Structures are given as structure tokens and as C-alpha cells.
Amino acid sequence: NKRNGIDVDKLDYFMRDSICCYGRASVDCRITRLINCMRVINVNGQMQVCFEEKLAQSLGDIFSLRAKLHKYAYQHRVPRVIDLMITDALLAAEPHFKIRAEDGVDRVLTDCADEPNAFIKLGDWIISAIETSSDDNLKPAQDILQRLNSRRLYRLAGQATFLVPTDDTPSEALLDQISAYLPAGIRDEVRRCIAIEFIAITYGSSDSRGAPDDPISHVSFYNPKTNPNEAFRLPPSRQSPLFSPSDFAEKTMLVVVRDDDYMEVVMEAFASWKARYRTILSTPVPNFNSPAAGKRTRSGLSMERVERRPSHRIEDPACL
């Protein structure tokens, strides 16, 4: 349902996922009651599914559950980090791992998207094939997958929530801004170990300008005790101020560090960036324990030692 986002598919997996995540259905909305209170009414020349007005709060709870599931399950920081690690592994393996299509031509993973016979062969088996391959060229990808399997995930240096959820600053620009606060001697090396991830959560509805809004404002209701064939929209004055959020979107930036040795130096750079750009950031309710400043990295390498660590990159221009 593109008009307001209510469909039976959502009702099904919202209940399923909330039970899996929380052990119970986290919304007080019985599907049979919802269906029994539906009615198809002609609204401005369009036949629309309308609901009894007494269900307005229950429908609002469904959209609230959607946002919570995105925040605490679908787009939780751990799944996002795992997604990033799998992406890094596939990118590292991409030039060397090939799929043979029915025409007998070997194609790298990115080329499989343009060849249907090769595309249909893609699957989760690729991860296992990379892990068990004897090709030395796949060693970088295998190292990432080994980290993933042993739960040595990329670490989160911090997160920041934008004051305006529609902020469209690209990740590369944000990475440049944060990198400006890194020590000059290791700036380029550390920058390659930083990834910027965005978590954008809405109630699944937007107005005519594309800005997130209240999905209840797009739902038509009726009153069976007055005129069951007349549909109407609920004005904001008839919605509960206690259960109606003031904003219907949230955009958060995650700063992920691939190398534990650089964790502390990135944390300090990110803290400086947040202090500089605090006017565009909000203060969200924390959903994870921030790493302590000044704490040594997992490898035991302090910030001072990081600054003195020599670079292993080839600096000879003839070799570049």
C-alpha cells in the first residue's frame, strides 16, 4: 500500500520479528480485529480501505513498532558492521573469484549482474568457497571472513545523530572532515581504515515534498455510528499528544574502524569533529555503551605508539 504503508505483509513480519526479538508481540493490535473493522469506501473517486476511527492509535503503534524494529534489529549497529565486513570480503575477492556461466566465460562477481545465466548462480555458497579456496590471492578476503567467524568485528568509534534527518552530506565529505583531525603523519593510512555508515529510520511515510511525516495522516477512517460510507482523515488535533512523536525520522552516522590499532586515534578525531559540528547534531538517547577515551586498544597499542608506528606502504614513486 503505497498510500500509507499498511499491508498484510508488514502485519505478518512485524509480529513474527517482534516475537523473535522480544519473545512476544510488541504491539497491541489483533489482526482479526483490524480486518473486521475495515471497509472499502470511495474517497475522492478512489476506492480505499478505511478503518474505524477507534483504531487510529493501534495503527500508530504498528508504525512505531516498525521504527523500533529497524533501530534495534534490522539496522542495529552489529548487523550493519557485519554487512560491512562481508562487503569488504567480497570486494577483496572480486578480482580473483570468478563464476563460470553457461556460455563458458568466467566472470568476476560484479560482471555477473549483467549476465542472467551467471547471476542465478550467485548465492551464500560464495562465502564458503572463498573461505576454503587455496588461491593465495583470496587471503585478504579470507582474513576478513576469519575475523567475522571468530567475532572479532570491526569496532565502533562512535555515532552521531543529525539534527535534520534529511541531511544529505555524502559519506566521503564526512570522512574528509573527520580525517582533518587525524595526526598528519598517519592521516592517509588511518583514513583507509575508517568507514562511514548511515542508519536512516522513518515511519515509512512521506509528504508531497518527500519529507518524512506521520503515516496516520494518509489513512482514511470512518465512524460506523454516524455515516459508515463517509471517509475522513484525522486532523492533528484529534491525535494523542502523548503517543504521537514530534519527528518521524532519524538519521545516524556510524564511524567504524577496521583496524583496532587505530581505534583510539579515530575516537579522538571523531570527538573533535562532533565538537566542531555540534550545531548540526542532536543528542539522542544512547543505545550502546560508548568506548572509554584513553583506553588501550585490544592489541595493547596506545595512541602514542600508533603515531610512531612506521608505515608499511611503498613510498618509492617508481613502485606506485
UniProtKB/TrEMBL annotation:
<dbReference type="GO" id="GO:0008832">
    <property type="term" value="F:dGTPase activity"/>
</dbReference>
<protein>
    <submittedName>
        <fullName>Uncharacterized protein</fullName>
    </submittedName>
</protein>
<dbReference type="InterPro" id="IPR050135">
    <property type="entry name" value="dGTPase-like"/>
</dbReference>
<dbReference type="GO" id="GO:0005634">
    <property type="term" value="C:nucleus"/>
</dbReference>
<feature type="compositionally biased region" description="Basic and acidic residues">
    <location>
        <begin position="304"/>
        <end position="320"/>
    </location>
</feature>
<dbReference type="GO" id="GO:0006203">
    <property type="term" value="P:dGTP catabolic process"/>
</dbReference>
<feature type="region of interest" description="Disordered">
    <location>
        <begin position="288"/>
        <end position="320"/>
    </location>
</feature>
